[in-house]
Amino acid sequence: MIRMYLIFSHKLTEEQKSEICSDLGCADVVSLPGNLQNIWSNVNSAADDILSAANDIIQWLYENTREKDYLLVEGDFGMTFMIVDWALSNERIPVYSTTERRYSSRGRSDGSVTNIHHFRHIKFRRYSRFV
Fold first, then answer.
1. What is the pTM of this model?
2. Is residue 106 part of a domain?
């Protein structure tokens, strides 16, 4: 049974849920436990070293995932790099969501500007190493 592990700070869209089942063949979707989700969603931007925080998540992944499981990894660039590097080295399949983005900007009567960004999931793409 292949699973999808969510290592990101958002909620899955209906399109993403559908693709996880139909295209990737995952039978189950697993979120990080609350304490690790808190670490992932609140990486200290002032910290010079985030290795210990990443190690907590990697230890959990090591204990709970199996080869060929998918990991949806999106977040702080440094943490994402460490998790993706671990996944690629340990036969897990790290992916990220590709999106179509639409942008519009509206001037307001008070001189301010409202920017509107619309994101729509297109597909999951595998992270890979440059060879």
1. 0.86
2. yes
